């Protein structure tokens, strides 16, 4: 046993374990997704009519946009409750500017700037006062931003921008049955996934979510990263506001209500951990479509909206407990193997 | 009465992919202190977990007072009189000492907790240990040493006959360690059998009557303390001769890279001035609580100073965050690798590359192949005990986690590297490896600042030594001037001066 010890060799090729790959959460979600599609298709002959289907997909993608940035927030162990309020505030300014200047383009720019600034405002508070939790800060701004929109609009609506054809086409225009907006959303989602899983910025978000202190000690600029993510969240809310305006052409102060809850639900269903540091964007993407199509399918079956809520709430609870049960079973399996 | 209170025969334990114990033996006599020695990852912790019922063995037998037993859970082991005191205190900081002592075995009557009786008994236990705190104190307000006393009191409250101490001295000052020795002696005299695990040889020589060594999950030997020598012990633990424990290279110190002038943070440290040159290993030592870590955290941008100047490479710099510090060429290896150093949920590869991730990226996109290649190279250079790069950091022992943390600094292009207690809780073999890396980094022209409480490594590795006491630098010694007594005298200078002043007044 004496003499120089063998230098240890460490394996650096990724393990190829197909079983664990197929046990991944995304695959179970995909099964759920196809389950929903098949159920819908059987229940209603109208479901698979491409034109209807895409019209509906377009409407829930307006909210799906918000789920994309919520993914980043949750990944960093943060939460942004103010998203719905930023949407209504940005949409309101869009309408006001359009009606004042007659330029819907100027309105769009305003919506984006206002959204981004609202998000940056959240971020600045959070990095100036590091002890505050984003849940509290964004709860405050959630009330604040909606209050601003209510103050501006009162009981009135602002709108009329669908009279500008190209603006209405942002939502309406299609290649064949496929809307441009759907293509735009897919491209944006791909970009979000790429940034999250392939870039240093993404890795830094994972690190901050897993252990903020350790990330700071590793030299990651935690404040800058948080500020960027919250500002991005606001910016995407601005995009969502534009799409909402293009879709309905009318903005009231209740626009965007419940977006935050729905986005968080989609993320959690997609496998994001609310504690931060875990999850995948493809998972969230599948979850967005699963929830959206489930809602659509039920509306085709004339299920009333309250019942839809009950079903989606129940589904979320079942899915989240399943994630836990799966983890426990997974542990048991490895123990037995050992 | 059988010869051994506790005997383990041919114990084996398998974890996925790892044989943690391979048919090991262990015998504990009544009324003895028995030192269990071995490198990190040798299987000591697993053995403890088997004795305390946390894990169940896959092979072998456990005899308690000559009778075969099977501990299915920690509760079984506790009922049989086994208690363990861990290196990292596992307490509830927001609860009182009493609550911590009786956690899990509260005194009840008719389902109601008997607070009065519990406080009384807790206070009595604390008094038998001669501890200087009260049963109603909050756990979080106590020092690490005091918290350990609570753990010992907890063991006593369960009437434990077999007490396991897992590196209890790692976080203690010399005086506190001496106190712990006395208490351990007392426990033995009162009839308890103690299993003592420590990387400090002095603990073993001071306390143990017998020593058992494990290496690579196997039993090596058990000897009476009189038959144990440093050389024999190291050979048994490491499996080879260590040429030199402190491989300090002779390096011509280059230009000055770091100059700190009169750095102050009110209530924490005052007028700290120090310098470091390329190729130099500078030691910063002093008693625990002297403010060493706090100074380093200020240099690293974690807490802004009230006044003072920092010059890096001859330029005055302002450092507002660790990312600033690293951009300016100053890095720090934290003492608290579990919470601040590594992301334990991550694999070791990603942990190694995290600080320098942008170096493996083009336009922000990470090239994972080159990242893994480099990570593998670095992990092998520090000899991390891991099978693949995808092993989670949490699956490694403390010493191997430290090696991963050290491996990080090998990728960087830093000018100054601060290492805060780089060998804390690390075994001899890994220590030598870390010293060797320090030497290499110094040779490459890095200036290294080593904060340490361990006298041997301060004397063995440093070119110059700053000694701190109560937030001030009380002395600076060159390698030639330094010896243990002078350092200790300077480390306690402030207290001695004050005592002198009081006398003169």
What do these coordinates show?
- The complex is a heterodimer of chains A (338) and B (505).
- Helices cover 74% and strands 2% of the residues of chain A.
- Chain A has 14 helices and 4 strands.
- In chain A, helix 4 (83-101) crosses helix 11 (222-248), helix 5 (104-128) runs antiparallel to helix 6 (134-153) and helix 8 crosses helix 9 (200-210).
- The relative contact order of chain B is 0.11.
- Chain B folds into 2 domains: 4-238, P-loop containing nucleotide triphosphate hydrolases (Rossmann fold), CATH 3.40.50.300; 243-345 and 413-504, P-loop containing nucleotide triphosphate hydrolases (Rossmann fold, 3-Layer(aba) Sandwich).
- Chain B is built from 18 helices and 24 strands.
- In chain B, the strands form 6 sheets. In chain B, strands 6-9-10-3-11-12 form a 6-stranded mixed beta sheet, with helices on both faces. In chain B, strands 18-21-22-15-23-24 form a 6-stranded mixed beta sheet, with helices on both faces.
- Chain B starts with a strand and ends with a helix.
- Chain A binds chain B through residues 1-5, 7-15, 198-201, 203-204, 207, 210-211, 213-224, 277, 334, 337-338, and chain B through 14-16, 215, 235, 239-241, 302, 321-323, 325-327, 331-332, 334, 339-346, 349-350, 354-355, 357-358, 361, 364-366, 372-373, 375-376, 379-380, 383-390, 408.
């Amino acid at each position: 046993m004496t003499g120089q010890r063998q230098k240890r060799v460490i394996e650096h090729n990724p393990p190829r374990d197909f079983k664990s790959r197929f046990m991944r959460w995304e695959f179970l979600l995909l099964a759920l997704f196809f389950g929903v599609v098949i159920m819908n298709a059987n229940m209603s002959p109208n479901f698979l009519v491409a034109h209807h289907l895409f019209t509906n997909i377009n409407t829930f993608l307006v909210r799906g946009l918000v789920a994309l940035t919520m993914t980043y927030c949750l990944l960093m162990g943060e939460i942004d409750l103010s998203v719905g309020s930023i949407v209504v505030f940005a949409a309101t300014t869009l309408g006001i500017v359009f009606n004042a200047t007659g330029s819907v383009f100027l309105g769009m720019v305003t919506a984006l700037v206002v959204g981004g600034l609202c998000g940056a405002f959240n971020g600045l508070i959070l990095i100036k006062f590091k002890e505050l939790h984003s849940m509290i800060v964004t709860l405050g701004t959630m009330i604040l931003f909606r209050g601003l929109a209510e103050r501006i609009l009162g009981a009135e609506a602002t709108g009329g921008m669908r009279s500008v054809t190209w603006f209405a086409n942002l939502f309406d225009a299609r290649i064949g049955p496929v809307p441009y907006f759907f293509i735009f959303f897919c491209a944006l989602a791909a970009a979000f996934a790429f940034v999250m899983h392939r870039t240093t910025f993404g890795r830094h978000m994972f690190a901050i979510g897993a252990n903020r202190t350790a990330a700071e000690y590793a030299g990651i600029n935690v404040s800058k990263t948080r500020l960027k993510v919250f500002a991005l969240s606001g910016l995407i809310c601005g995009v969502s506001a534009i799409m909402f305006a293009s879709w309905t052409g009318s903005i009231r102060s209740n626009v965007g209500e419940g977006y935050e809850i729905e986005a968080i639900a989609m993320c959690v269903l997609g496998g994001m951990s609310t504690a931060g540091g875990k999850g995948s964007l493809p998972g969230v993407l599948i979850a967005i479509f699963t929830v959206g199509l489930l809602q659509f399918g039920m509306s085709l079956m004339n299920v009333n909206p309250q019942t839809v809520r009950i079903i989606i709430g129940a589904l979320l609870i079942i899915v989240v407990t399943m994630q836990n049960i799966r983890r426990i079973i997974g542990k048991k399996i490895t123990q037995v193997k050992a | 009465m059988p010869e051994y209170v506790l005997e383990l025969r041919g114990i084996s334990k398998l974890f996925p992919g790892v044989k943690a114990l391979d048919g090991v033996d262990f015998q504990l006599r009544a009324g003895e202190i028995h030192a269990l020695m071995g490198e990190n990852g040798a299987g000591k912790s697993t053995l403890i977990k088997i004795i305390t019922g946390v894990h169940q063995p896959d092979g072998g037998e456990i005899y308690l007072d000559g009778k075969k037993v099977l501990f299915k859970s920690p509760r079984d082991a506790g009922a049989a009189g086994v208690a363990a005191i861990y290196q990292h205190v596992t307490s509830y900081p927001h609860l009182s000492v009493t609550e911590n002592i009786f956690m899990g075995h509260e005194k009840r009557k008719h389902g109601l907790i008997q607070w009065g009786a519990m406080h009384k008994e807790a206070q009595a236990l604390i008094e038998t240990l001669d501890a200087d705190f009260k049963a109603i104190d909050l756990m979080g307000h106590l020092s690490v040493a005091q918290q350990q006393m609570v753990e010992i009191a907890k063991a006593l409250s369960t009437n434990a006959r077999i007490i396991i101490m897992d590196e209890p001295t790692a976080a203690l000052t010399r005086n506190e360690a001496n106190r712990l020795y006395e208490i351990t002696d007392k426990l033995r005299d009162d009839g308890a059998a103690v299993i003592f695990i420590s990387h400090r040889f002095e603990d073993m020589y001071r306390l143990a009557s017998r020593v058992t060594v494990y290496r690579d999950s196997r039993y090596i030997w058990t000897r009476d303390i009189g038959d144990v020598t440093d050389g024999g012990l190291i050979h048994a633990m490491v499996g080879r001769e260590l040429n030199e424990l402190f491989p300090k290279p002779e390096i011509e110190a280059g230009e000055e890279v770091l100059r700190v002038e009169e750095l102050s943070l009110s209530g924490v440290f005052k007028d700290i001035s120090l310098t470091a040159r390329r190729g130099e290993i500078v030691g910063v030592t002093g008693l625990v609580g002297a403010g060493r870590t706090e100074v380093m955290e200020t240099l690293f941008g974690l807490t802004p100073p009230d006044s003072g100047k920092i010059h890096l490479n001859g330029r005055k710099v302002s450092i507002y965050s660790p990312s600033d510090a690293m951009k300016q060429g100053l890095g720090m290896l934290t003492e608290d690798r579990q919470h601040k150093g590594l992301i334990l949920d991550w694999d070791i590869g990603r942990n190694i590359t995290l600080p320098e991730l942008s170096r493996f990226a083009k336009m922000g996109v990470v090239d994972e192949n080159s990242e893994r290649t480099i990570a593998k190279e670095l992990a092998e250079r520090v000899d991390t005990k891991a099978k693949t790069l995808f092993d989670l950091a949490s699956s490694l022992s403390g010493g191997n986690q430290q090696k991963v943390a050290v491996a990080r600094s090998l990728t960087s292009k830093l000018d100054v590297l601060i290492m805060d207690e780089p060998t804390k809780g690390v075994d001899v073999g890994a220590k030598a490896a870390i010293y060797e890396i320090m030497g290499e980094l110094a040779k490459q022209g890095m200036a290294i600042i080593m904060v340490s409480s361990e006298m041997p490594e301060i004397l063995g590795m440093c070119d110059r030594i700053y000694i701190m006491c109560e937030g001030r630098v009380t002395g600076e010694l060159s390698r030639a001037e330094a010896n243990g007594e002078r350092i200790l005298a300077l480390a306690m200078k402030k207290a001695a001066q004050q005592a002198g002043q009081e006398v003169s007044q």
